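Predicting holo structure, iron/sulfur cluster bound.
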Amino acid sequence: MKIKDHNELFQEQEYLEQFERKKEFENCPSAEEVQRTAEWTKTEEYRELNFKRKHIKINPAKACQPLGAVFCASGFEGTLPFVQGAQGCVAYFRSHLSRHFKEPMTAVSTSMTEDAAVFGGLNNMLEGLENAYTLYHPKMLAVSTTCMAEVIGDDLNAYIRTAREKGVIPKDLPVPFAHTPSFVGSHITGYDNMMKGILTAVTAGKKGEPNGKINIIPGFDTYTGNYRELKRLLNMMDVKHTILADVSDIYDSPTTGEYKLYPGGTPLTDAADSINATAAIALQKYSTSKTLDYIGKEWSQSAAVLTPIGIKNTDPDFIYEFDKLLKI
Ligand code: SF4
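Done. Tokens:
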């Protein structure tokens, strides 16, 4: 069968007539008007107007909150990102991240449909948690939400408590959560919300002796090489640290010929001990603001955004800022 290219196909009489007929409904300017405007764009008058513009609008690449939450959660050891919401949303997060990194990406959804939208998503959550835990044996289930769950107002805290009471999941399994409504903010907001949710959950009751470490929060950074370089430099300088969250082995796993469901991530013991660190340094501003605020207020830890880019942040000024941060 010969399938025609659209250039050729749309030149056929049938299509040409169809385009003509459509103009009746399109309210488009006449061919003469289009030609006149095209000529005007080549004049000095147009050029002057063009250069007089002071503002430019740029539409940034923007994904929705749960995508950021899923990305953040996947950077912790043995963690299964778990999304309360519709299946299509999670298929999008997975395909988006898998395509970008060329790596399999793990996340599950509670597959909410019309009945959950009307009656609430508790049953989906209970069944989902039970299935996910039984099938995939995660060390942590990190729950976020899609638009649907947020519009109907699902109460994650109450649902997770109910799941524990009903024995659907073990009482000691960490199940942090973050409400990630996609009609607010973007993927970086979701990353921040999930990071705060995870740190809140894993550090509960872990306040103890200072461990002398620095918490490093890279933010929504998709360049896996950055994480490895960061670790290399910190190790060279003998700086004890915890990367929150380390996605490098998740999205750039070695090709050993063997599939691993959980190929790496920040060890949960290190994440739990992050509450006892000396300071927290975020490398991005907007994807870590709530987390830094939480660390500063709740953990009484020095917390700042210090991006190691440029002379100011990598030469003596950086050292100075760093010393100030550590209150040396
Ligand atoms: S914007 Fe809402 S509905 Fe769309 S993919 Fe994100 S969570 Fe799903």
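The domain at 65-202 is CATH 3.40.50.1980 (Rossmann fold).
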